[in-house]
Amino acid sequence: MKDRYDVLIVGGGPAGSTAARFAAQNGVSVCLLERDREIGVPVRCAEGVSDTGIRKIIDINPNWIAATIKRFRFHSPTKKYVDVSSNEIGYVFYRRIFDHDLAVEAAKSGVEIFTKATVCGFTKTEDGFTNVLVRYENRERTVQAKIVIAADGIESRIARMAGIRTNLALKDIESCAQVLAGNVDIDPGRIDFYLSEKWSPGGYVWVFPKGNRMANIGLGVNGSMAKGRSASEYLNEFLDQNFPNASRLTTIYGGVPVTTNLSRLVEDGLMIIGDAAHQVNPLTGGGISSAMAAGKMAGIVAADAIHCGDISRKKLCTYENEWNRTIGKDYRRFYRLKEWIRNMTDKEFEEIASAFQGMAPTDVKISSIFRMAVKNKPSLIVDAIKVFAGF
Ligand SMILES: Cc1cc2nc3c(=O)[nH]c(=O)nc-3n(C[C@H](O)[C@H](O)[C@H](O)COP(=O)(O)OP(=O)(O)OC[C@H]3O[C@@H](n4cnc5c(N)ncnc54)[C@H](O)[C@@H]3O)c2cc1C
Questions:
Q1: Are 299 and 23 a contacting pair, CB within 8 Å?
Q2: Is residue 52 domain-resident?
Q3: Residue 12 C-alpha to ligand 1 middle, in angstroms?
Q4: Which domain holds residue 209?
Q5: Does any domain span residue 360?
Q6: Which residue's alpha carbon is at the smallest distance from atom 37 of ligand 1?
Q7: Measured distance between the N- and C-terminal CA atoms of the chain, rounded to whole angstroms
Q8: CA-CA distances (angstroms) from residue 284 to 122, 136, 240, 341?
Q9: Are residues 195 and 310 in the same domain?
């Protein structure tokens, strides 16, 4: 590890590896530090992605794909279901391999990567550099960087250390539990969603196939609606009732921010990306492709700032503005939809399922389902049409 880099990235998830690769490809020196001993492990994710979301950033390697998805099924509380076919292809990935390969691509672009390297704090120097305190190989050292990119996930401490407000309201957090289930009888090309106040209040249950009769089965429970029960209690009850013969091969827990992104994504010499910046789709909880999109934007802007010799907030705001103008704008629409849907009752879910009974999947569009869900709130109909155009 050198004493000084142009850009230092904290965290080796999809956001960090992507930012690192794009910064290095644009001609600056980059160091990426990851706290865990192995990039991509542990996996805390249902691993679902869309083809277009990933392909905007990187070509898809077939080794990443556990299942290819062309169909969706929504289940009502009484187990009526609505089938939807989509023009959009999705995948369930092996994130362990995917995250690892993103880091390999960054390394090939010249990024220096260190695992078991934890960033513990930082201070500003008088000449505008940042002194980053790193615990690595059982000792603490200081590494200087012109720009620090915080890609340190939902539990991010870097943004908070910089004085940025990162706390989340309870209603804007989903507490999640998931098992990798074996011996499940499912359609290997379809993902299933179960919507009910009893199974996952303020969230949903997902069943994402992983091939070989396996699936990621998990759920999110809204922080303000959990009624004192943990996500794992809800999940166990759901599994007992719906997949009584499933083996529970691995169990994971994690939080997902379901809010709009931080109001400040940059400061002088600092950029925040991915889950650390709350750049997650607040309706679905999906954050992989948006973390990578933010990483790409931030990496390119960081390199340009270094070449221009200007690492001020004003210069770095190119990233903040681009995010807010594009994905951030869509995510504010998704947030308004999520705020409405989170409070829907089982009776309302049932009514929607009933309205679509007997229809062929090709005739059911996701946008129609959401338009029906918000029919009593006309101001949201435009949001539903805009964000689901093309589905
Ligand atoms: C249960 C669950 C299911 C999910 N399912 C999906 C899904 O199906 N599809 C989808 O798109 N998204 C899903 N998500 C969300 C998705 O996992 C995240 O949005 C995505 O991983 C964000 O990437 P990131 O790089 O910002 O953060 P992360 O992937 O969390 O990476 C952050 C990295 O920073 C490291 N780090 C933290 N602090 C430090 C430090 N001080 N020093 C050095 N390293 C540090 C961490 O070890 C970690 O490796 C799910 C999340 C959960 C919890």
A1: yes
A2: no
A3: 9
A4: 68-89+169-258+342-391
A5: yes
A6: 152
A7: 47
A8: 34, 36, 24, 11
A9: no
CATH value at residue 200: 3.30.9.10
Domain count along the chain: 2
Residue 100 in contact with ligand 1 by CB distance below 6 A: no
- Residue for token digits 């080796």? 12
Ligand 1 touching residue 286 (CB < 6 A):
yes
* 91-114 pLDDT, tens digit each: 999 999 999 999 999 999 999 999
Q: Mutation test of ligand 1: which of 256, 262, 327 has the most ligand atoms closer than 8 Å to its C-beta?
A: 256
Rounded Cα distance between 27 and 78, Å, is 57
138 contacts 24 by C-beta, under 8 angstroms: no
Atom number, ligand 1, closest to the C-alpha of residue 152: 34
pLDDT digits (tens, 9 = 90+) for 140-186: 999 999 999 999 999 899 999 999 999 999 999 999 999 999 999 99
CA of 147 to the centre of ligand 1 (A): 21
Write down which residue in 273, 300, 325 finishes a domain: 325
Ligand 1 nearest atom to the CA of residue 275, by list position = 26
CB 47 within 8 A of CB 92: yes
Q: The domain spanning residue 114 has which CATH number?
A: 3.50.50.60
Ordered DSSP codes for 62-127? GGGEEEEEEEEEEE-TTS-EEEEEEEEEEEEE-HHHHHHHHHHHHHHTT-EEESSEEEEEEEE-TT
Q: Is this model's pTM higher than 0.85 or not? A: yes
Q: Are 148 and 8 in contact (CB under 8 A)?
A: yes
